[in-house]
Specification:
Length: 121
């Protein structure tokens, strides 16, 4: 289930964010968290399975598009479709905005877009 980030899961959100290659530096990580907390265009969501938060996805809206800035899944839950499901759910949530990617998230989002094209055919 995709739920909006709350301050109470700050530590787990930071842990998940730190799996993004450009977020390994603690200063950068704190700055990113601050963006999500303070910039209304930036929104962070957590993926909850049972009682656990096992994934996160962070987006930024800009006119008719939203950009997936961060996406991360706990290593022990990877390869089970969580990442792709988060993209599906975030697209539903952001409708009618169009999903864009950053260089850091593009490879995984391209996989999602290809699968969606194949499904729509
Ligand atoms: C990328 C990430 C979110 C994928 O989450 P996941 O839940 O394991 O992904 P899913 O199980 O939904 O999807 C698996 C599919 O995506 C592909 N995939 C996984 N990681 C990928 C990546 N970094 N780039 C491109 N494709 C990727 C897999 O090959 C697989 O494809 P298949 O079903 O055709 O075999 C996860 O590996 C992660 O947290 N990585 C560290 C953070 C990161 O680098 N994020 C940015 C990635 S561009």
């Amino acid at each position: 289930m995709l739920i909006r980030y709350k301050k109470s899961c700050e530590k787990i959100a930071m842990g998940l964010l730190s799996f993004m290659p450009l977020e390994r530096n603690i200063k950068k990580l704190r700055q990113t968290m601050q963006d999500y907390e303070e910039n209304p265009a930036c929104q962070l969501f957590m993926w909850k399975k049972g009682e656990d938060f096992i994934g996160m996805i962070g987006v930024q809206t800009n006119g008719p598009v939203f950009t997936v800035r961060h996406i991360s899944v706990m290593p022990s839950y990877r390869g089970e479709g969580v990442g792709q499901t988060m993209l599906e759910k975030i697209q539903e949530q952001m409708e009618p905005l169009e999903m864009h990617a950053l260089e850091e998230t593009r490879p995984f989002i391209d996989v999602y877009k290809e699968k969606r094209k194949a499904f729509d055919r």
